[in-house]
Design goal:
Blueprint (H helix, E strand, L loop, with lengths): L1 E3 L2 E3 L5 E3 L4 H9 L2 E2 L3 H6 L8 E3 L1 H9 L9 E5 L3 H6 L6 E6 H5 L3 H13 L15 E7 L5 H14 L4 H25 L12 E2 L6 E7 L3 E8 L6 H11 L17 H9 L2 E7 L3 E9 L9 E7 L12 E2 L5
Parallel strand pairs: 3-4, 3-5, 5-6, 6-7, 12-14
Antiparallel strand pairs: 1-2, 7-14, 8-10, 9-15, 10-11, 11-13, 12-13
Helix pairs in contact: 7-8, 8-10
Length: 327
Amino acid sequence: MTISNNVIVTEVRPVIWVSEPLRRTLCERTDGTAVSSVKEFLDATRDPKTVSFVDAASLATVASIDHVTLPGPIIGVCEESLQTAVGWLQYPWLSHVVNSAMVEHPMAEQHLKNVLRALTGTSQLRLLDWLEPTVIGRRVRLTHSNKRVARLERMREFFEGKKVGNRTLELLQDVAEELLTNAFYDAPVAAGALKPVPRTEDVALPDDSACDLAYGCRDDLAILRVRDPFGALTRRRLVEVLSRCARTDMTVEVDETMGGAGLGLWRIFSGASFVAISVLKNRHTEFLVGVAKRSAGPRPFAFHLFFKDSGKRRLSDKSVVLASKPK
């Protein structure tokens, strides 16, 4: 894949089966091939890394063709609510959704470039690479859970110094607290490396397997990234949590097995401009969350799920310890 005149060019062009005016916008941003029928869609030139864009109408058609397996990844383009977009995750072959507001947003150019590079590239996925040189930020490794409060305060001071608005700042604080708490308390339990403990206890990770926190911003976007060394999150678990919280009647059943009802994750998806999740089973779980600093009109949103199997568990059940015994 190459970038020419701000247009994303792949060896095999993306196939775009969405309605106007989004079709025209996506073609301009990706140099994709537009199609308008099942036959054109299925006959389009593809290789195993060809990306296809579909909207609600074409998604329903693709889902009904159960005898056809497309060789490349699919990105859903949703013109409706986040609840609708989450519902699309019922299809196991769909892991990427952007809404129409994101397609039209100025950040879409860079965002789509990052996504297509991740989907078509040959190197190992690193969400940290999505933080282009224009992002100014900080990166720190945390080995003790009781250090997160002080770090979050320093993060707040950093964003305040960059003139990030109060609303965005509060969202970033909530996202960071949720992800760091999950990294120190929920992920090691799910991985079998720690028994459940109160969140007031200080959990210690090995120095070479610290929780990795990065944050930063550019003129139009604030970024937060958290990576834990467990790789315990599963796609099934994530979809269950999001689907439960997306119920329009707002009747959310509390799940006592892991971090309550999962409302923290839902709040992240509800407030962020994009969420990318990379999980290498037994090795790491990585969240990258972007929040538009100034966004007039409909809220842009996108989410991208990268789940991959791995081998042996990275940390043993003796690697994660309590820094002090519970009283």
